[in-house]
Amino acid sequence: MSHKYQAPKGVSEYFPPRSSLFEYAIEHLKRPALAAGYQLMELPVFEDTEVFSRGVGESTDVVTKEMYTFEDRGGRSLTLRPEGTAGVMRSVIEHGLDRGQLPLKVFYTGPFFRAERPQAGRYRQFFQFGIEAIGIDDPYLDVEVIAVAWHGYRSLGLRNFTLKIGSLGDNESRTSHRNELVKFISGLTLDDETRERSVRNPLRLFDDKRPEIKEKMRSAPVLLNFLNTKSQEHFDEVKRILSSEGITFVVDPTMVRGLDYYTGTTFEFDHADLGAQSGIGGGGRYDGLMETLGGQSLSGIGFGLGVDRIVLAMEAEKVTPNDRNYLDLFVIPLGEAAKSQGFSMVEKMRSAGFVADLAFGERALKGAMKAADQRNARFVLVLGDNEVSSGTAELKRMSDGSTSSVTLASLVDAFRDLSA
Ligand code: HAM
């Protein structure tokens, strides 16, 4: 069927009943962050373009090819946020949040935008849940951040994922590696575009998906072998603490994150059942970002988790909870008097904390019972003139069809007893 209006190409959208899975995922990802003291940061979805071009980095695909950039009516260049960290940093600097207690621990969730080629699990508008811990450089904090993601995935029932970790080291380590890497790359035969990219950031070549480049890079010097003592000790501590907390990982010596601001610890979570777009989350340290954006020199670490891919992973692992789309009580009124009473009963039930709904409109009994079924109602109450005048009705338990008589005036109490 063709429709006059369609959503823009490559965006993800959620509507019932699947939207409840999306909501469920965010709630569960958020819980371990709240438990660890992270607080909400709600930021604009567009920023001054420079926040991203400088923050995320000119050598990245994100900045060179994927930004939704536009001019506003005042001639300012704005960009729809392709990621969350640079915006958080801009806000922290602007509002002096780095002058309070450190680490500053924040979380955010919402839509992000990258003009990528759409495919399963890769969208132009996608959703992230992210956290950032700013201002303290401590390997225990690295592990806390990783653990928040880990516990979030686990609490959703996900099991088929792996954690990869790496380290990009500090400036000194990166410089000594860079020198060797540039020497190595200068000996390779490369097309102009690839050479150009390697000049801006030689590490990018580790990220190249083309088999011929992969082959060439097989013997390239890897950063992990160039870590200085300080960076090596930090990385060793992260690995030790992860192990002692029972968080399993593999070290990936050539992991290059897609954004330029990373330093030190980096990590990615891969899901086994998702095909090409298997990254369900990633993050790391970004010790120079704040300074790059005009703030003081403070460290930071965080992650962004791809909520769309997490929902796909839950479906692939068949761990979708069956209590979504859930209703404690569905009231079916037959006639006006019954509707008036039924509506007040539903309102009372809701105030008492139950999920209750009414068959609105002039629904025939059969159609209304079908609706109750589809809504996964635990109990159904049919209200006709007899029930209204006697003040009692039959409450039907949908799982086994059994009924019990209840007094309408004390429905909430009766319901509490029944559902206990
Ligand atoms: P990122 O690795 O670019 O990191 O994205 C994080 C996650 O967002 C990915 O692992 C993936 O699950 C999801 N994602 C990215 N692009 C798409 C897309 N086009 N469609 C669907 N999902 C996508 C960042 O964005 C960093 N800001 C993370 C971070 C926070 N690092 C430190 N703090």
According to CATH, the homologous superfamily of the largest domain is Bira Bifunctional Protein, Domain 2
The CATH topology assignment of the largest domain is: BirA Bifunctional Protein, domain 2
Taking all residues together, what is the mean pLDDT?
A: 94
Structural class, by secondary structure, is alpha+beta
Total domains: 2
What is the oligomeric state here? single chain
Small-molecule components bound: histidyl-adenosine monophosphate
Poorly predicted runs are: none
CATH architecture of the largest domain: 2-Layer Sandwich
Q: Please tell me how large the radius of gyration is.
A: 27 Å
Helical content (DSSP H or I, runs of 4+) = 25-40%
- Beta-strand share of residues: 15-25%
Shape: elongated
Task: Tell me the name of the CATH class of the largest domain.
Answer: Alpha Beta
E-strand count: 16
In angstroms, what separates the terminal alpha carbons?
A: 48 Å
Note the total helix count.
15
Largest sheet: 8 strands, mixed
Topology at a glance:
Layout: H1 19-35, E1 39-40, E2 46-48, H2 49-55, H3 61-65, E3 69-71, E4 77-80, H4 85-94, E5 104-113, E6 125-134, H5 139-155, E7 161-167, H6 171-186, H7 192-200, H8 211-217, H9 229-244, E8 250-251, E9 263-271, E10 279-285, H10 289-292, E11 300-306, H11 307-316, E12 327-333, H12 336-351, E13 356-358, H13 365-374, E14 377-383, H14 385-390, E15 392-397, E16 403-407, H15 411-419
Parallel strand pairs: 1-5, 7-8, 12-13, 12-14
Antiparallel strand pairs: 2-4, 3-4, 5-6, 6-11, 7-9, 9-10, 10-11, 14-15, 15-16
Bound molecules: histidyl-adenosine monophosphate.
Histidyl-adenosine monophosphate is lined by residues 83-85, 114, 116, 122-123, 126, 128, 130, 132, 258-259, 279-284, 286, 302-304, 306, 308-309.
